[in-house]
Design goal:
- With about 160 residues, the protein is mostly helical.
- The chain has one domain (about 5-125).
- The protein contains 7 helices and 2 strands; from the N terminus they run αααααααββ.
- It has a two-stranded antiparallel ribbon.
- The longest helix has 21 residues, at about 35-55.
- The protein is globular.
- The N and C termini lie far apart (about 40 Å).
């Protein structure tokens, strides 16, 4: 990450202590230290996006950011204090649903991904992981390790 955010952290986002949140995430089954660190960095960056763009755009967290956010909220006094430092108010967490279908708003997630890339010059951790997985699967299909039955959600339904 560029040091410009640490040097110009006028909002306190990159200096708030999230060690308790990290410890909580690390206890979750399947969470590696790397996954915890990347999720916390994405969560911090997501908070910055909310600070900078939240009034203009509907933003949605990825699943890993959302989990970090949930863990932060569980430390209620700390979360309340951190929100006051960063936003000057309590930042409420609510599901991002589209008004018409009452389902998850993928447009809000797409906006988050776009703003994240524009701001930080890299993709969200989860997106980077899916691209890696997709490339591994695609390369194995090309090598003949898997047979493709039918397209599935933009990827492929793979049979071994």
């Amino acid at each position: 990450m560029s040091t410009k955010y640490f040097l110009k952290d006028k909002h306190g986002i990159f200096t708030i202590d999230l060690d308790q949140v990290k410890a909580s995430l690390a206890k979750k089954p399947g969470w590696s230290r790397y996954m915890v660190e990347e999720s916390i960095m994405d969560y911090r960056r997501f908070l910055l996006l909310i600070k900078k763009h939240g009034g203009r755009y509907e933003l949605a967290p990825t699943k890993l950011i959302d989990e970090a956010w949930h863990q932060h909220i569980l430390f209620t006094r700390k979360y309340h204090h951190d929100c006051a430092v960063i936003f000057g108010r309590y930042l409420h967490h609510f599901p991002v649903l589209d008004n018409e279908n009452k389902r998850f708003d993928f447009q809000a997630l797409d906006m988050t991904r776009k703003l994240y890339f524009d701001e930080f010059g890299e993709h969200l951790f989860e997106y980077r992981q899916w691209v890696f997985v997709y490339n591994v699967i695609f390369n194995n299909i090309k090598r003949g390790f898997y047979k493709v039955k039918q397209p599935f959600y933009g990827l492929f339904k793979v049979l071994t």
